[in-house]
Amino acid sequence: MNIVNLSKIAWKAILLNKARTVLTMLGIIIGVAAVIAMLAIGEGSKESIKKNISSMGANMINIRPGAGMMPGGVRDMSSMQTLKLTDYEALKSATLLKAVSPLVNGSGQAIAGSNNWATSIYGVSPEYLTIREWGLEKGTAFTNEDVKKIAKVVVIGKTVEENLFAAGEDPLGKTIRFNSTPFTVIGVLKEKGENTFGQDQDDIIIAPYTAVQKRILAQNYLQSIVASAISEDQATEAVKEVTGILEKTHKIPENEENDFNVFSQQELISTFSSTSEMLTILLVAIASISLIVGGIGIMNIMYVSVKERTREIGLRMAIGATESSILFQFLIESLLISISGGILGVLLGLAATFIVSSVIGWPVSVTVFSIVISFLVCTFTGIFFGYYPAKKGAALDPIEALRYE
């Protein structure tokens, strides 16, 4: 008997017990839907992390004081004061950097008229906006001449503008005070929104680093130096070049640890993407339990089906049906249940990702890979869990099967 006829027989047998078949499919449906939804959320999170970190400056390189590969941990104050303006000047000679800026920052209260807002002020060079790929909505940026003159001018973010000035009020030319020091607003930054860490990027005041160092912080060291590699492809080489330059300026022996650390946005993206992938694998593993439960359900129902149709199997064998045709009939029946459940599961999974995206607002990204994997898993589940009952049915003795009550 050919496969087409066996498929027709198997499909008729499934349709005779619709309710039982649907209940058997539930495990597969829920399992496939969960796997697709988890993969979509994981992939969406990874893309969102990459996009958000890239929005901070795709080619950006961070140089921070203190030993270690990444910022964090408790350090003494002396280890956090290792970056100087001489390091910034030295990095200007780097061939793989297109822009470099010192960075000092402090928190405090910004006041304009009767309005006040707790925010942060960043002291940088004019190149900072290029490094961060940050445009101006209105006004102008400060210049290197302003840096030399220690000019009290600032560029503010949208959040600061909205909290210090009335709706429709033009902040350009107005004076704001930061910790009692007056500054003139000369520009407003374009809106960027929150970054990967949930931090409002628009809640910021940017000023010449000389003004922030001398008029607000009263310090001569830098909190960090930010730079921009010529291209993303050269970011790794740029990190090596920066490290080499700073090792020379800091006169660090070969056998000692650097008193600074350098890392690129690509390293951050790689780190967070790896974490996201691990969480996705964990979620998919948990969701796959439903597929195993569904497979056990298929095995159970196929045992019942073989038991109920023992006389039919005996009759078919008596008129010439081979063991292989009996085996394939029940195996195809198992596959049809599994694949049908898989199709419904894919549809449910797509609907679930749409709800997660539109209602909850989580980033999702459904890939063809996840759908293909789901169908392959369904096929494997149908074969794996359906084979033993099918084999048992095919191995029945025709005479004993015909006598079965």
Write the layout of secondary structure elements.
Elements: H1 3-15, H2 18-55, E1 60-65, H3 85-91, E2 97-112, E3 115-124, H4 128-131, E4 136-139, H5 144-148, E5 153-156, H6 158-164, E6 175-178, E7 181-189, E8 205-208, H7 209-217, E9 224-229, H8 235-249, E10 260-264, H9 265-308, H10 310-318, H11 323-360, H12 368-394, H13 398-403
Parallel strand pairs: 3-8, 5-7
Antiparallel strand pairs: 1-9, 1-10, 2-3, 2-6, 2-9, 4-7, 5-8, 6-7
Helix pairs in contact: 1-11, 2-9, 2-11, 2-12, 3-8, 9-11, 9-12, 11-12
Task: Give a structural overview.
- The chain is α+β, with helices and mostly antiparallel strands.
- Helices cover about 55% and strands about 15% of the residues.
- The protein is built from 13 helices and 10 strands.
- The protein has helices at about 5-15, 20-55, 85-90, 130, 145-150, 160-165, 210-215, 235-250, 265-310, 310-320, 325-360, 370-395, 400-405, and strands at about 60-65, 95-110, 115-125, 135-140, 155, 175-180, 180-190, 205-210, 225-230, 260-265.
- Strand 6 and strand 7 (about 180-190) form a beta hairpin.
- The chain is elongated, with a radius of gyration of 33 Å.
- It starts with a helix and ends with a helix.
